[in-house]
Hints:
- By secondary structure, the chain is α+β, with helices and mostly antiparallel strands.
- It has 13 helices and 16 strands.
- The protein has an eleven-stranded mixed sheet with strand order 9-10-11-6-7-8-12-13-14-16-15, sandwiched between helices. Strands 2-1-5-4-3 form a five-stranded antiparallel sheet, sandwiched between helices.
- A hairpin with a 6-residue loop joins strand 1 and strand 2 (85-91).
Amino acid sequence: MTSPQEPCVSLPQLKLDELLEELQARIDAARGARDRVRRLLEAVLTVGRELDLEQALHSIVDAAALLVDADYAALGVIGPDGRTLSAFHTVGVTEEQIARIGSYPEGHGILGELIDHPEPLRLAKISEHPSSYGFPANHPPMGSFLGVPIRVRDQAFGNLYLTEKRSGAEFDEEDEAVLSTLAVAAGVAIDNARLYEDSRLRERWLRANAEITHSLMSVSERTEALGLIAERAREISCSALAAVAMPMDDTKSLAVEIAVGLDAEEHRGLVLPLDATLMGLAYSTAAPVASDDVTHDPRISTEPRRFDGLGPAVAVPIGSGEGGVRGVVLLARESGRSVFLERETEMLRSFAAQAAIAMELAERREDAEQIAVLQDRDRIARDLHDLAIQRLFATGMTLQSAGRFIEHPEASERVLRAVDDLDETIKIIRSTIFGLRVHDGAGGSGLRARVVGAVGEAAPLLGFAPSVRLEGLIDTAVPREIADHIVAVLSEALANIARHAQADRAQVALTTDGNEVLLTVSDNGVGIPPDGHRSGLRNMAERAEQLGGRLKVSSPDGRGALLAWRVPLPAVQAPGRLKASNDPSRSRTGTE
């Protein structure tokens, strides 16, 4: 018995090779997607691992170029104004090419398109976009383009720019998706790097505060502590110049006591008004005042020239309006450097506030020490009066009574002489008691304030305000007699400039090193004619000669006049030491 014949099955007319090729293509695509996802994860891990902000930005650019297979990649950081690029990190362009191209782009053209419209942008050819206006000379040719924005906490941070896909094809949707994912991870990495940088920076500020507090609370002088404030602020903020100005008594001016860094000598000793200067504005408003370019800021006077080569600057008050502003610290960076960000200014403000607290504590400690000294003086004076004087008086009375019973004339005379000596000793002790109990107050305005006042009085006559520089222990090292002569000479010199010089600029400098005091007054006027009236100069010269000094008048640049009035300061003997006049090895002449 035969089995029935099985029906014939009709298969689809597909070639086996085509099926295998399609299967292989899908496998390759799956492998490619897997490899791309793996590279993306590796890139996210690499970027997130960096804690240094600059290194993190470079890692982001490297990872972006690798992920989308681009020849050139760049990351542009948007500046504080939100319209231009403040930094530009590149991959694929050599240092030689960058040098030939010139300065980095500022964010115009296609780059500015992403700043104005922060969303992904893909172009087959850059030149076909309406915002494109070509490349600078020596720039490598670039065709295809892919750009995506980077956000940090919903704030625009910058943009990733990719050009020239290596395969010659255009950037596709997958490239855009991968790069957008990397941009999200980059935003998190940048935020972490910023937080880490801020924490390290705050740690440095705190260490500096502790150092300054220790310095102020120890036996260090205030000048040394102010110098430490300036030096640490300059180091931590990466500034080229740091200066500290303190208010002058009885004037509406600031005196720059400390300056460190670039051209510090041009700032040290300057007397600044409360307007037309960055430090004066910060002091009068009790708030930070910043400038993007201190050399071209209309709020700041250009004279005297002191900010050459400097750009971004910020002045922060030491203290607050409630507790009183004790001074101002100024920081300035070199021209072309980044401006002071708000977070940097806030850290500097906290640092200055802590420094003000330390200064307050130091002053309270000095007040307590002064009170203790005065109390000790009162005790000594009381003991001298109640014990020593009474016993000396009683001894004198006893000797005076006993003198009547002495018959020998010479012995009687000696006893009476001893009584007179005791009486003189009592007078000396009474004078000492009076000296211990008299507390000399301010004793009138100091020489600094008098000089600033004389310059201020002369300003209306001159038609401009001369610049003033004061250096050294002027109020303490210069005696009152010499100070009177200095003010008189200064007033006469400024009056001569107003009457004869036809000048529009003048500088006044008063300096002392403890051995001599030097007053210089200069102007840019017509100078002193050979046949001019010289009675005023003769009076100045006589004042200097009376004090053992000299006057010199010159015209250094062939225009204007420079008056230098110089006198020695008297030697001051240290209190509490015996005179050394009997010791030839210690004798000094009065002119030494």
